[in-house]
Automatic annotation (TrEMBL):
Organism: Trapa natans (Water chestnut)
Protein name, as recorded: Laccase
Domain of life, per lineage: Eukaryota
Plastocyanin-like domain: residues covered: 38-151, 165-316, 430-561
A single cellular component GO annotation: apoplast
A Pfam short name: Cu-oxidase_2
């Protein structure tokens, strides 16, 4: 063992002991996990390929805890490239050092090294998830987090007879997704599209070479089950249904909601939904299935049309491999069913009970109006048109397309290092126009965006209202699931067309709006959210369609310290991953610097 390895282990032990002492003070239980990142051979869709996994599992292991617990996860990177892990929806009070987004709160965990995350749970209860936060590595590096009620308490509904985690994933048939992504970015071509959707890692009966591995879930007649559904898909909203069965949504994003009875659900990437279903149909076999909900222009047909499936099998029955013996989910909406997608979203409300009250900010101190757009990066010296050679598709917030800095923003903020970011992210668009017009001959100044690393600074305790406004630039209007790290927010309003600041606020729901961490800005519409900036640190804001995040639909909030120890950013662990000085994706560079066993050849 090298001296450097010994030092790293010693630092980790000191951090773990200090963290455990803090947790004991908070009276929470402590859990420990080891995540080993490595390449694993997998065969799907008749093709064998190598994917990055955690503990040889796709999806990865489930973390199961009680509300208020703390988890230490040591990530051992035996893969080919640098990776980080994000604990999606976990607020991490005062501890952004373990939040995980690459070049926002840390630099990558390089091959052959390890890093221990301290994951601090607070008021979250229900289902959340974890995933890689380095380019598209999350396509195969992800898993669920089950947060049970505190010991001695129970659910705000009848305790189910059983529960099942269902992680919905996208499968890419390409030989090496990360090399394909690198090449697409360098050549300014379209980014990769998935080839299928999996339920707990299996594509199901409707995909080639997949029926023998279809997942089966046995149920007993008359019993009720809690399904913990995670949309870990990289670039698609999904419809989910079980043939001939009703579903009751009772939770979302680690919080409870008023029950929604429906024959289907719609879940955006990044979201989790807890659903009850009762096995009350004639004993037999029933498909549960997912298909993409596409909010793109109907003329866009290049999305993944596949149907991911599994079998719900009543106990005592026999499964026949013929699909005709399994009831088909005719209640599953079609790909372009905008009406069904909108109807489900419009029904979501917080539980707002005595035990789970809402606390919607009303005295707003910061207001922002942010456009979410498709754009063009002008790389051609003679023409900035979309069609000009060398120009690239981009996305933006208020016409600023995010670019990663050379070191993480959190480190720069904490150590007061200049030149890494600027604090001038605009509160409003620089140009006001008809954001949702049907015509496509927009002024070039609206279409062309600029790259920058601009952040928004908030005082501790500020009450923030943001109106996200969708635009139709480049005919690229779709639903944009926006995700905020370090906080939950209330969705107080949404609508279609251009936001009207006189009439639309009159429609706000300030009584029981959904409390979430990810929610969709409607296609050609607007979304208003409110939250209290009560978590000091640097927190990422981004669209959870990774295509759009890759193209720049991101920014970050810096929340300053408050006046107490509890409202002050804690110091960093002494063993944070070091930055290499380059924020490019770097997959090819890193692959060339390691041998077949994942060891760094440069050492």
């Amino acid at each position: 063992m090298k001296d450097g390895d010994c030092l790293q282990i010693l630092k980790s032990l000191i951090f773990l002991l200090a963290g455990q002492f803090l947790v004991l003070l908070a009276h929470g239980e402590v859990h420990y996990y080891d995540f080993v990142l490595k390449e694993t051979n997998v065969t799907k869709l008749c093709v064998n390929r190598t994917i990055l996994t955690v503990n040889d599992s796709f999806p990865g292991p489930v973390i199961r805890i009680h509300k208020g617990d703390t988890v230490f996860v040591t990530v051992h990177n035996q893969g080919y490239y640098g990776v980080t892990i994000h604990w999606h929806g976990v607020k991490q009070p005062g501890n952004p050092w373990s939040d995980g987004p690459e070049y926002i709160t840390q630099c990558p965990i390089e091959p052959g090294s390890n890093f221990t995350y301290q994951v601090i749970f607070s008021d979250e209860e229900g289902t959340l998830w974890w995933h890689a936060h380095s380019d598209w590595t999350r396509s195969t590096v992800h898993g669920a987090i089950v947060i049970l009620p505190k010991e001695g308490t129970s659910y705000p509904f009848h305790t189910p007879d059983g529960d099942e985690v269902l992680v919905l994933s996208a499968w890419y048939k390409v030989g090496d997704l990360y090399d394909e992504l690198d090449e697409a970015i360098k050549s300014a071509s379209d980014l990769p599209h998935s080839s299928g959707y999996a339920i707990n890692g299996e594509l199901g009966d409707f995909s080639n070479c997949s029926s023998e591995t279809t997942n089966h879930y046995t149920v007993e007649y008359g019993k009720t089950y809690l399904l913990r559904i995670v949309n870990a898909v990289v670039n698609a909203e999904l419809f989910f249904a079980i043939a001939d069965h009703n579903l009751t949504a009772v939770g979302m994003d680690g919080a409870y909601i008023k029950p929604i009875n429906s024959t289907y659900i719609m879940v955006s990437p990044g979201q989790t939904i807890d659903v009850l279903f009762t096995a009350n149909q004639s004993p037999g076999n029933y498909y549960m299935a997912v298909r993409q909900f596409s909010s793109e222009n109907p003329s866009v047909t290049g999305f993944d049309h596949s149907l991911g499936s599994a079998i719900v099998e009543y106990s005592g029955g026999e499964y026949n491999s013929s699909s005709s013996s399994v009831n088909y989910p005719h209640n599953l909406p079609q790909n372009l069913d905008m009406k069904s997608g909108r109807e489900f979203v419009n029904r979501i409300r917080s539980l707002d009970s005595e035990d789970y009250p809402t606390s919607v900010p009303t005295n707003i101190t910061t207001r922002m109006y942010i456009t979410v757009s498709m754009n063009v990066l002008c790389k051609n010296s003679t023409s900035c048109s979309e069609q000009a050679m060398g120009n690239m598709l981009a996305t933006s917030l208020n016409n600023i397309s995010w670019v990663n800095p050379e070191m993480d923003v959190l480190q720069a903020y904490y150590r007061n290092i200049s030149g890494i970011y600027t604090e001038d992210f605009p509160d409003f668009p620089s140009i006001m126009y008809n954001f949702t017009s049907d015509y496509d001959d927009y002024d070039l100044n609206l279409v062309v965006t600029n790259q920058a690393t601009k952040v928004k600074v908030l005082e501790y305790g500020e009450s923030v209202e943001i109106v996200f406004q969708g635009t139709t630039l480049l005919q690229g209007s779709v639903n944009h699931p926006m995700h905020l790290h370090g906080h939950s927010f209330y969705v107080v309003g949404l609508g279609y067309g251009n936001f009207n600041n006189e009439t639309d606020p009159q429609t706000y729901n300030l009584v029981d709006p959904p409390k979430v961490n990810t929610f969709g800005v409607p296609k050609s519409g607007w979304l208003t959210i409110r939250f209290t900036a009560n978590n000091p640190g640097v927190w990422f804001w981004h669209c959870h369609l990774d295509r759009h995040m890759t193209w720049g639909m991101n920014t970050a909030f810096i929340v300053k310290n408050g006046g107490t120890k509890e409202s002050t950013l804690r110091p960093p662990p002494s063993y944070m991953p070091t930055c290499t000085g380059s924020s490019t994706t770097g997959h090819i560079r890193t692959r060339n610097s390691v041998d077949d066993e994942g060891k760094d050849k440069s050492q």
